[in-house]
Structure formats: C-alpha cells, structure tokens
Amino acid sequence: MKKIKYYIGAAALLLGGLSSCTLDAVNYTEKDQTNFPQTTNDQAQALAAIYQNLNVVNANPQMSWYYVAQLASDDALGGGGENDILMQAEDLLSVSATNMTEQFWKDRYEGIMRANTLLDAMGENGDPQTRGEALFLRAYYYYELSSMYGNIPLTTTSQKVEPVQATAAQIWGQILQDLYTAATTMPATRKTDGHVDKYCAEGMLGRCWLYYTGMYCNGEDLAGLTSTNYSPLTEVELPNGTKLTKQMVVDCINDCVNNSGYSLVGDFRNLWAYTNRCTVKDYAYTSGAKDKDGNALKWVEDDENGTANPSQTERMFSIKFNKQASWQTTIGYANGYALHFGVRGSACFPFGAGWGAGPVAPNLVSDWKAAEPTDMRMNATIQNMQDLEGFALGGGGDFIQESGYYDKKLSPVEAKKDDGTVSVCFENLMYPDNWSVAGAENLQLNNIHDLVLMRFAEVLLMQSELTENADGMNKVRARAGLPAVSYSLQALQNERRFELAFEGLRWNDIRRWHIAAAALDKQTGTKIYNKGIETTNTRSGYSYSARYNATAGFQKKPENQVSLSEGGIQQNPGWDDASSMYTKW
Q1: Exposed (0-12), middle (13-18) or buried (19+): which is 144, by Cβ within 10 Å?
Q2: What is the tens place of the pLDDT at every residue in 419-469?
C-alpha cells in the first residue's frame, strides 16, 4: 500500500491558536498555545498539520494557484465542457463568479496561520530542521497567494491582527527572508522521507528571487508590471534590515547543485507515471523503449512509497496522496489534478478519463517543433491524441477548446489487467487491495501518484539563468539527447518552456520576463473544436494581451474577503467592469 508518510493523521489534527477574524482561517479551539505545541512530538504534529494544507487545497484543485498557472499560461487552453466555465474563465483571465477562487484564499491562509503558530511557539532557537520546514511552507504558501493575487495581507504572527494589504516589497521580502533563513540554518542533509530539506529551500529561494526581481523590476504599479522592459533587480531589502543580493542567491543555488545529492534521472520519460510497471509494456510509445544504457523504462515511483527507489533523485518537493480519499471528508488525499486534466468524453488508453481541463495549446506544439525539432521531450510530454487507437478528434461531446493534444505529465494513467480488461487507474494494480474508502476502479479518487512541485532540473536551469552560464542548461539538454548551446536569454527561455512544460511554472516565467502579452496572443486563431465543430480559438471583442495589460495576470481577489476587511484589502485593477466576467463560448 502506498504510504501517506508525514500526512497520516494530519487531517484529524485540530491545531489551536489560529484565531483569525482577519484572514478567514478556521479558529480551532481543541488545543491552545498555553499547552501546545511544547514537546518534540507536539511540534511534529503541528508540522504535519502545516504540510497537510498542501492536500487541503487539492480538495478544490480548480481554485488553486497551480491550476490557474496551467490554464492562464500560453501553453494550455481552458477546456472542459460547455458548463465548466471556471476552466475557460481562467484561460481568458476572467471570472465566472465574484468569489471564484475564494476557497483557495481561505485554505492557504489557514496553512500560514498554522505555520505562524508553530514558529511563535518554537522561537528562533527551536530545532533548525523543524523551524526551517515551517518557514519554507509559510514562504511557499505566500508565494502561491501573492503570485495569484498580487498585494495581499501579510502576517507573521499567530496573534489576532486586522487585515492590511502589504506592498509587494513587504510580501516578497518576507518570502525571501523565510527561504534564506531556512536555506542557511537547516542541516545539510538531503531528506528522503517526503519532508523538505535545506536544498529544497535553496531551490525555492531561487524560484522566488527570479520571479520577484523580474516581475517588479519596473515598480509595483500596473504600468511597470506590464512594461516590456526586463532589467531584474540585483538586491532586495529584507524585513530584518539586511539585504539579499543576487550573489547570495547564486551561492545557495550552487550549493544545491554541488552538494545536495539531488541529480537528474537518466531518462526524462521515467519521471512520469505512464512509465509505471503496470502500463509501460502495453503503451505503444513506451513498449520496448530503452534508455541510453539499454534499460527498459522504469518510473521513479515504481516502488511502494515513491522514495525507496534509488533512481528517485530528481524530485525535490512533491505532494503525496493515499488511499484515504473520500468525497465527504478527505478528498484532498486524491490527486484531483489528474482527474481534472484527464481525457474528456472517454478514456483513450493509456490515458484515463477526466474533465478535459487544460488542453495543450497548438501554438506550443508549433513553437516546439520550430525551435527543437529533434527534442524527445515533446513526445514525452505531449500526446497527439490522433495517434491513439479509438480517438476521434471532435468526439468529446460538449468539449470546449479541444485541441487534440493532451499533456502526459498531469494525466491519469490506465493499466491492463492480466485478463486484458483495463483498470481506470494504474494505482489499482500497483497498490492492490484495501481501497476501503473509494473502492476499487474509482476513476475520480484512485489517482494517487505524486504531484511534483519542484525538480532538480529546474535548479540547474536557475543556475544558468542567474550566472548566464550554459553549463546547467546543457546538462538538462544532454539528458534529452540535445547538443550543447551557448547561453542566451532566449535559449534559456526555450529550455525552461520545454523541460518544465505543464509543471505550473510557465505562467510566472512569461510574466517575470515581461513577454506575457505577446506570448498569450499566440493562442488566438489556433485551430480548436468546440462541441465537435472545428473553429478557431477566437472570441469576438476579446484580446488576451488586452486582458493581461489590464490585470498584469493577477486574479480577482474574492469579493467576500475584500468586503470582510472593511477597507484593508483593495481589489486588483482590471476587475471592475463587465469585460472581466466570462460568458460561455
């Protein structure tokens, strides 16, 4: 059975001291700060509750930052059925309801308040590993919230505070300070039990540094955010009065590359669930395929727990899932992203059925073929559905923005049983028995393979970008069988786009490089099918670039939260007229 690791039991933990009329987090009262967390065991429970917030958000994946980042980018369309207007709205930088993503806001602030409670209780002299993990998670939750909504309330205490909107400099200064503290105080030990470690903090520091110093290099106003000028900042003031410099970040990234023990797995295809041992032999693309050493393809999670396999060296930060998912209580323990990004209409082996979110944008396919025609990662990442037996383009019923391409990284994966019939999720065969909550063959709850949030390949690409040296980038290219190149920003941009496609990073990349408006417009006019009828991805009177320039890509803050703050939270630009409200195709 696939183990839940550090999440087990965390759903039942009601962590006290989260008093917050401010950020709409739940005020649990079963324990309070006078008696919890005090012992090492208490702190472990409190830390588990912070991690568990990763799964809480997955109960409503369509409202999450990760989901928005997929659909809003230039590499994916909205998709879904005629009535799945939230998906299409996120693609078009619009809203389907005034509080469309409110549950994500509430859930993430609950995670932040849990982190604040543990950090307050521990103080600065607490166990460096535990404290570093709490700092990392608080920073990660703020990274998602601020990437999604821009200027948001910032609190670093578990005490009751009124919601006051912070500046970007304040928010990102705190994020960077938390990550730098974690990166420089946690033990230099690579963790293999699902917990984040020093090197994860170093990697996330690089990601957040690149976003903030690029996105805000022209200032915090709308004109600066949407300017096409790209001149990244080289130092940032931190809340503690010190400065974080680019060289300090480079030093952390170099330490991760040189000393962490993380490394690239030998074959890019082994990172993704379709090479699992129950499916690999029956999928035409992988059946009989060999890696560069002549070995059959083998998924890095091909063991019971996803970490014992010695080839599991590249994944640095993932969300894990388990068999305890239930619609009534713990739905977040299933990988809801797999369900949402599954094949709409009916499964097409080996890719399982789902809601059809995020069809691959045809402009990504054409750009990829033009830039890197021999790149094996394109077929390893994108499935041209017309190559699969039984697929009919335009046959997805009420499918909107159908492109004929699905990404393989997020998709649910089927497997064939010994009798030749098909299991809706390969996990049913890999982890047999004891599906006591969802039951066997539940295509909605039995997807439990990891959601990868950070890989070592990203760290290598960050190293090249920060140092303007192609060495890290060329290591990634060599794994894909591509020749070495000289460093240029364009080459780096292409490499990140192709290596990290559909991993939730492209949206912030095109924003921080100040190329978003032009990149998004390349989706307009591409061939799609709406409800089986061939058409183009064009809407009368709508412009991707115009919507981006009106919003800088920030989502509408939930009106309930704006109203609750009594003036402490201001709505983002671009969301005050009818043009921001999505109507059906």
Answers
A1: buried
A2: 999 999 999 999 988 887 767 889 999 999 999 999 999 999 999 999 999
Residue 300, number of CB atoms within 10 A of its CB:
24
Locate 453 and state its tokens: 């949030």
Rounded-to-integer distance, Cα 266 and Cα 291, Å: 7
- Taking CA atoms, 69 is separated from 56, 60, 64, in Å, by 18, 15, 9
CB count in 10 Å sphere of residue 249: 26
Between CA 249 and CA 224 the distance in angstroms is 24
Instruction: Tell me how far apart the alpha carbons of residues 382 and 388 are, in angstroms, rounded to a whole number.
Output: 12
Distance between CA 336 and CA 338 in Å, rounded?
5
Question: If you search the block for the tokens 């994108």, which residue do you land on?
Answer: 382
**CA dihedral sign of residues 547, 550, 554, 560:** negative
Judge contact between 207 and 215, C-beta under 8 A: no
Question: What is the distance, to the nearest Å, from the Cα of residue 310 to the centroid of all Cα atoms in its chain?
Answer: 25
Instruction: Measure the CA–CA gap between 520 and 363, rounded to whole angstroms.
Output: 10
> What is the amino acid identity at position 524?
T
Going through 391-540 in order, the beta strands assigned E by DSSP cover: 405-407, 415-416, 422-423, 451-455, 527-530, 533-536
The whole-angstrom separation of Cα 186 and Cα 203 is 14
- pTM score, two decimals? 0.94
> What SS3 state is found at 22?
coil
Q: How far apart are CA 311 and CA 263, in angstroms?
A: 9
Q: Which residues pair with 416 in a beta bridge?
A: 422
Beta bridge partners of 383: 406
Maximum CA pair distance of the chain?
66
Query: Each residue of 40-91: pLDDT tens digit?
Result: 888 999 999 999 999 999 999 999 999 999 999 999 999 999 999 999 999 9
> Which two tokens mark 189?
């030990």
Q: 176-197: string of b/e by CB count within 10 Å (b at 16+)? A: bbbbbbbbbebeeeebeebbbb
DSSP one-letter string for 427-474: HHHHS-S--TTT-TT-TTT---S-EEEEEHHHHHHHHHHHHT-SHHHH
Determine the residue type at 549: N
Amino acid type, 383: Q
